[in-house]
């Protein structure tokens, strides 16, 4: 009985898979040119920004600090608290609309120019791989040697690990601050198990990404390529091959009846996702422009005009001209201006203090031996201003109530949240059907900050007792 034969696909399903289903490792050959030079500048500017942000302070605050423990998020000197749901929602929607607008105008400019996956893969990790392994040919030789620990590949992985660990520690600095990261680095992991775990997991994720998954993250894990059909239209700017000029392609000096494409495969060997740009717009294309530089170099050698592969649109390739103004390029800016404008307005005119009234964690009220009823409530004050304030709290609504507070006024540092417990005591007959509404007033150094109604809870008297007290009150009013 013959051994079963693995089925063979009629064609390559993914650029990273061979037809028999095995992994096809991509070793793209970099193509120098004006586009690579521009992307290199952009990439290293972004890398420097990423590494520098934990060390930059604005108005005494980190430029970006995502303090998950306190649930406070600081962006460019402005701290957002958990109660800033509307502001955070408006900011998130603005970012999404901006991505939609960028895609409608310039295609996958984010993927090819600014995505961390592309930036670090193409400008950090792949150059290191070429340095240690000697380019695509050297990597192939190491693959064919089939050695578990090849010295050059082992050195590459050690370098990856060092860089990945440094990037992971920088990532942690966005959540706890760089000073805390430095303190933890020189301390025992037992003293900060959570931070140590985050760095370890992040380092492992970086190693798995750039050692094994690599370009598969863009083609399999990232949904952006699948969103192209909704985000792009025929007038969106994309990296495309001019089939009108290039076809029919062919080798040889005699170009009679042939297009400008000389079938050199330079655009394929330089592609970081392994596709053939001449097959049209594809999900795997990240618009990195490497094929443009490769093709332009070949065109110069054969004496043909550059731009066989270029930034263009599907409509322009079909001879339909350029149409900048269209429905999405009009609606997206309007939507962005409306949402982001609302965000800026809310941010500018938000209250200097965020005040929240909370009830007691236990019983809603306590009846004292003399018959008085005591409610405990908590006043949570978040100081949004840039200076410290002392907040005074007062309760009004009836002359017979008494208020006891352990600390009143309550000092609150800028950007911090403090809670003041209050004990409010009223006579038994101050409650109507077990409820008494009072007003909690909060002032800041004599300046009015806010007044909030609050319903105190009390015992519910029976109907006869309630009528008796009502008659007593009415009698007192007549006298």
How do the helices and strands line up, and which of them pair or pack?
Blueprint: H1 34-52, E1 57-58, E2 61-62, E3 64-67, E4 72-75, E5 78-80, H2 85-106, H3 109-114, H4 116-133, H5 135-145, H6 151-176, H7 178-185, H8 193-213, H9 216-221, H10 224-231, E6 238-241, H11 243-246, H12 266-269, H13 290-302, E7 309-312, H14 314-317, H15 327-348, E8 353-359, E9 366-367, E10 373-383, E11 389-396, E12 402-404, E13 410-412, E14 417-426, E15 435-444, E16 447-457, H16 463-478
Antiparallel strand pairs: 1-2, 3-4, 4-5, 6-7, 8-10, 9-10, 10-14, 11-13, 11-15, 12-14, 15-16
Helix pairs in contact: 2-15, 4-5, 4-6, 6-7, 6-8
Structure notes:
It is a single chain. The chain folds into 3 domains: 34-83 and 115-214, no CATH class; 228-317, no CATH class; 353-478, Immunoglobulin-like, CATH 2.60.40. The chain has helices spanning 34-52, 85-106, 109-114, 116-133, 135-145, 151-176, 178-185, 193-213, 216-221, 224-231, 243-246, 266-269, 290-302, 314-317, 327-348, 463-478, and strands at 57-58, 61-62, 64-67, 72-75, 78-80, 238-241, 309-312, 353-359, 366-367, 373-383, 389-396, 402-404, 410-412, 417-426, 435-444, 447-457. A hairpin with a 4-residue loop joins strand 3 (64-67) and strand 4 (72-75). The strands form 5 sheets. Strands 8, 9, 10, 12 and 14 form a 5-stranded antiparallel beta sheet that branches. A 4-stranded antiparallel beta sheet has the order 13-11-15-16, with no helix packed on it. 24% of the residues are buried. Helix 4 (116-133) packs antiparallel against helix 6. The longest helix is centred in the middle third of the chain and has 26 residues, at 151-176. The termini are far apart. The chain has 16 helices and 16 strands. It is of the alpha+beta class.
